[in-house]
Amino acid sequence: MLAIGIDSGTQSTKSLILDTETGQILASAHRPYGLIPDLPPGHMEQDPQLWINAVDATIRECLALLGPRKDEIKAIGVSAQQHGLVPLDKENEIIRPAKLWCDTSTRAQCDQFSHEFGGTEGLVQLAGNPILPGYTAPKILWMKQQEPANYAALNSILLPHDYINFWLTGEKRMEFGDASGTGLMDIRNRAWCGPLCDFIDPRLREFLPGPESSRGVTGLLRDTLRKDWGLKNSPIVSAGGGDNMMAAIGTGNIHEGILTASLGTSGTLCSYSKTPVLDKEGEVAAFCDSTGAWLPLVCTMNVTSATEQIRHLFQWDLPALEEAVASIPPGAGGLLFLPYLAGERTPNLPNGSGVLHGMTTKNVTAPHIARAVTEGVTMGLAYGLKRLLTLGIKPTEIRLTGGGSNSPAWRQICADIFALPTICLRSPEGAALGAAIQACWAHEHASARLVKLSTLTDRLVKLDEKTRTHPDPKTAAQYKTLQTRQHDLTRKLHAAGFE
Q1: What is the pLDDT of residues 132-184, one digit of tens each?
Q2: Where are the domains of the chain?
Q3: Tell me: the pLDDT tens digits for 192-221?
Q4: Residues 6+ positions from 433 with CB-CB distance below 8 Å
Q5: What are the C-alpha distances in Å from 442 to residues 267, 430, 436, 498?
Q6: Which burial class, exposed, middle or buried, applies to 362 when counting CB atoms under 10 A from its CB (0-12, 13-18, 19+)?
Q7: C-alpha of 168 from chain center
Q8: For the chain, does the N or the C end have fewer beta carbons within 10 angstroms?
Q9: So which residues are the catalytic ones?
Q10: For residue 392, which of 273, 254, 245 has the smallest C-alpha distance?
Q11: Class of domain 2-244
């Protein structure tokens, strides 16, 4: 059978068609878009219609490339950016643009949750996670407090991937994995947390779909879309999930011992766990995954967003950036970068800013800066890895995805800073591939064929052995010292009021 995988991200949407027997990607397409410009600092918003237009366009392009085999498509799966707030009125019209995962305008609302429920420790004890600016919960409270007219029109709340599923099927549903990223779900019991919901509004649970199993089917593709796309029969649309949950599936991260690191606009590290992993300090997100288990996850907000700033600053193409980074030895000649250009989530510094520290007459060069920025954003992720290790996660291999993983120099930096072997996938689209695999899994269950997800991932997730990279022990020790220095500098600047 054939399955469509869709990954709707912050900067673009990618769709692909997967042959689930051979593992071959038969067609793929991509559409870029941007954020709403000129908003106040910290506000990051997007018109959900952009996502719909991009999904429609990329699927049409894929179907045109596929040709007569399009009637073999049996399933569609959607991955999308987590945490975004899509508010709908009684007519299912969008009330206001979606506030995104990278929106940090809700710090005051996070403080209100923290004050009410005993800080990070109390929130983790109550539901498993603190309330952070990126999550959906403070966005809802923000809308209630800052836009009462919009809140008064509210009839339902969806996450980005739920909204795309709604457009595809006409059904409003929310699965455990993405729902756990709202901040409102008790991740241990996979149910909405009453006290948190009631703190926003006693009616809030009326606006939220009840969280459901991630292995289910949202519905069939709407007839209007089936006809528009020229399909003979309506494929099923799976529950789908957040981009991190789908990337875990798409990288085969459904067993203990594997860690997925995404080097995209933002950065994530996540691992499979059979039991909830709760962090009393609130730095590791205690999410559910989209397989029926849990997905302890660390997120940083500045990865390729920072390296792209440098690339544009020096007017380089990607090969020139690669050459610059590779030309400088580890440590960037003493230049250290604190990568908080858009605030930060881990550590929690929503008003943070970036710092280049240790500048001398010898290291203020474009290649040194490029190397320092690449090392700095990777050490930012390693801060989260250290916390995962403290909580008992024991990775033996890191699977790299995202645009940064295309760089051999960066792959070596990752292996050395993480002090673990790294490897990439043959398919660069981990989340879209994961969405297609999950859609196949849901189709098999709906057809009463109880196929194990691992059977599918073992066949369909293909490692690119030529990218396997091992850490150099001497360099890894050097980076361990630099990580301590980066963390100490961050802590001291923050304590002194310089975020």
Answers
A1: 999 999 999 999 999 999 999 999 999 999 999 999 999 999 999 999 999 99
A2: 2-244
A3: 999 999 999 999 999 999 999 988 899 999
A4: 5, 16, 18, 25, 249, 250, 425, 427, 460, 461
A5: 28, 18, 10, 49
A6: exposed
A7: 22
A8: C
A9: 243
A10: 273
A11: alpha beta
